[in-house]
Amino acid sequence: MSWIADIVHGILLGGFYALLASGLALMFGVMRIINLAHGSLALVGAYMALLLTEHLHISPYLALAPVLPGALIVGYLLQRTMLERSLRAGQLVPLLTTFGLLIAIANLLQRFFSPDVHSLDAGRIGPASWHVSNTLSIPWFDVLTLGIAVAVLGGLQLVLRRTQLGRELRATAEDPDTAELVGVNARAVYARATAIAVAIAALAGVFYGMRSGFDPNAGASELLYAFEAVVIGGIGSLWGTLGGGIVLGISQEVGAQINQEYFALGGHVVFLAVLVARSAYGAPRIRYALRRFA
Amino acid sequence: MSTLLQVEELDVRHGLLQAVRHVSFEVADGETLALVGANGAGKSTLLRAIAGAHRPVGGRVVFDGRDITAMPAHRRVKTGIALVPEGRRLFPNLTVEENLSVARASGRDGRWTVDEVLAAFPLLEPLRRKRAASLSGGEQQATAIGRALMTNPRLLLLDEVSLGLAPVVVEGVYDSLRTLIESGTTIVLVEQDLTRAMGVADHVMCMLEGRVVLEGARGGLTREQVTDAYFGLRRREATA
Amino acid sequence: MTERGLQPPSPGFRIQRWTPLSVLFTGGLSGLVVVLAFAPVLLGENTQNNLIQLYFLVIMAMMWNALAGYGGLVSVGQQGFIGIGAYAAVFFSVQHGLNPYVSMLFATLIGGAVAIPVAAVVLWLRNGAFAIATWVVAEVFAILVSLDPNPAIGGGTGTSALLPFTLRYTPTQRLHYTYWAALGSVAVLLVLLFALLRSRLGGSLQAIRDDEEAAASVGVRVLLGKGILFVVAGAGCAAAGTIILAWQLSVLPLGPDSVFGINWTARMIFMVLVGGLGTFEGPIIGAVVLYVLQTYISINGVWYFVMLGGVAIGFALLLPRGIWGTIQERFNVRLLPVGYRLRIED
Predict the structure, then answer these.
(1) How many whole angstroms separate alpha carbon C47 and alpha carbon C248?
(2) Nearest-neighbour CA in chain B from A83: distance (Å)
(3) Chain C interface test: which of A103, A105, A112 (most C C-beta within 10 Å)
């Protein structure tokens, strides 16, 4: 029976991963940039919220009000100063500069905040959960997180499909030169995409801070999970990111079920298995096997 | 008639190759200029340089009295220049309607809206929600022209609109062009088909290896003269 | 038409691989290696210790550059092989009682062997997915090691190779032998890489870098080329890992500064970017720069990495070709003859 609990918890965990990963998916879908500093930026969001909650004595939810617009600005500037130039310098360069940013942020956070673990107070919803049965207990906070993830992904889809900005984003993603020729300012469009991506990252960071303790080095491990979610779900697909997050979450929970220490390992193994299955090596063989035995 | 476009001593490189050499010419408001020449003569590069997609290494582009040589492409669209690129270059995963709507980024108002474009190219009306990648050549060309029109341009640049299309389809495209010309839009078109080019244009300019080797008004040039210039059988220095 | 033998016309050009400058440089470099081999006799212990650090940094930089600069493979997971090298050496020496230096050799080979199945999983992937997959593989290795119940491996608290060394050698001997092992590894790997790049493989890699599809269409075996690079890089990084083990004796599996830590990749990226991505000489220069910064400029722990990250970003944006790459382009200098030169003769 506890396997059902794993699956449910896995889905809820997947919701968090999807929230964290959606900014990544957006940046990759529009600009083909793999932002290795994404997790670090999310962490910065958490730390900013920490500062606000500690000094102004407000709840983290309220802290989002200044943190999100701030993140929009940070994202915009990041694109205009660093990432724009990295893109022009070649395919390899954005990986290198965002990696440098990851290292710089992690260590700056360590310098200005101690290496101690902090956390944000999720309020009344924090400890509340729905006791479905003896073996299954659903935390309301996780449900909230999943709901926010779905809302964010849905919102992004809406923007991409229905708005002028979305059309310009998609057009620029497909052919930036021709987009310029019909009046689209590609650089401004990219900057707006990064701004949105970083704002979503900050949102995910604040929620991360509320669901678990965080320290300056947390950016790297959570980042890896977010990437795994994006890759499993299929790079470039927004709803795929949700699916990928859920698959990852379930794999991790099942891994932990087998042995507490196998939490991350469960996710990694499934990640690699998915890659092999999708690869030029695995895909034809799997199709063959399915045809033979189905 | 006033001069809308002035190109002065333009030099454009394509990689290490000098694609456009000291090209100068003028286009008056409302006029249609046909740019002819063999492959590699520099026609497309010249159009792209005027549209802002290619930075020249020397010379000037003056549009409506303003020096736009340093202006980025999207700003030129806002001032009224639109290019229909060689090969159509539609956004493959956007629908016809979305391809047209994107061009609203130019921010220019005028007679051309999505409905107007679809009325001008009736073959597109049933294809509104079709992905651009699944259209036929002629449909793509119509969409590409329509997309440029959505920016309500004062100067329309057309690069090889008949390329890869069946003759009957080209006929339809040129019919639409005639309507545009009659409505007063200034047009520069690159065309390999001499007959068509000389049929619609007020002026013809022939390029060879990056230079202008012949130019003249429609009535003043014979087909033979243009053909000779096209193949470089008789070279004439470009007028300064 | 005469019946006498037709003389083929002189081609008008000659293909040259060695230039006077490159002969000079290669000779000089070999001489330097010989001189450095005498360091244990000539230089003090501190210097030797520092040079060992330089050597494994050079190895790492060369390997990462081989992957990214010559193969277009940006790996964020080479630290996995560093860790494997270190732990395999522990396995052979601590658990099975082999001579530690022999263990190091075996561990290097193990690193190369492990690279083969890893390559089978990851080489199909492109850019971003490849980078993430290599990171995941490194994490998997780290976790597996930390969970290993074997007491020699030590699990999450790490392990030490103290015993195999102290049982056989005095500290001075360990220093000397480790020094020579490190220098020897650098020399061997340099020569190996040099030979690979001068061979057909070198040309294929250049073709793959420029246009993979076009290369495949003229018969270049793309996957094989990348595979060879990946295996060599795996072995090379494992060698670096064994040297780290011999040098610091105790290792940890988890944490950013562990032998499986992401900070090794940070250092590799720094060295290669600063030195010059895709050049042969660049990584060596980058390693020297990092070594100098590490050894002579005392920067407190955290700022050290901030500096690394910041400088890496700066170089990527302003001097994307790195120190050597820029010099190479400006002055058309090639010190190590991995390329071809055309001499036109009149």
Answers:
(1) 15
(2) 20
(3) A103
Chain-chain contact of A224 with C266 (C-beta, under 8 angstroms):
no
Residue reference for tokens 């229905």: A162
pLDDT in 10s for each residue of chain B, 240 residues? 688 999 999 999 887 788 899 999 999 999 999 999 888 788 999 999 999 998 999 999 999 999 999 999 999 999 999 999 988 899 999 999 999 999 999 988 888 999 989 988 888 999 999 999 999 988 999 999 999 999 999 999 999 988 888 888 888 888 888 888 888 889 999 988 888 888 888 999 988 888 888 888 887 878 788 888 778 775 554 443
The answer to whether the CB atoms of A182 and B77 lie below 8 A apart is yes
**Burial profile C203-215: b = 16 or more Cβ within 10 angstroms, e = fewer:** bbbbbbeeeeeeb
Subunits close to A (at least 3 CB pairs below 8 A): B, C
ipTM score over 0.95, yes or no: no
Task: Report all structural domains of chain A as residue ranges with CATH numbers, in order of start.
Answer: 2-291 (1.10.3470)
Q: Which residues of A touch B (CB under 8 A)?
A: 164, 167-168, 170-171, 174-175, 177-186
Q: The pTM is what?
A: 0.84
Q: Which residue of C has its CA nearest to A233?
A: C129
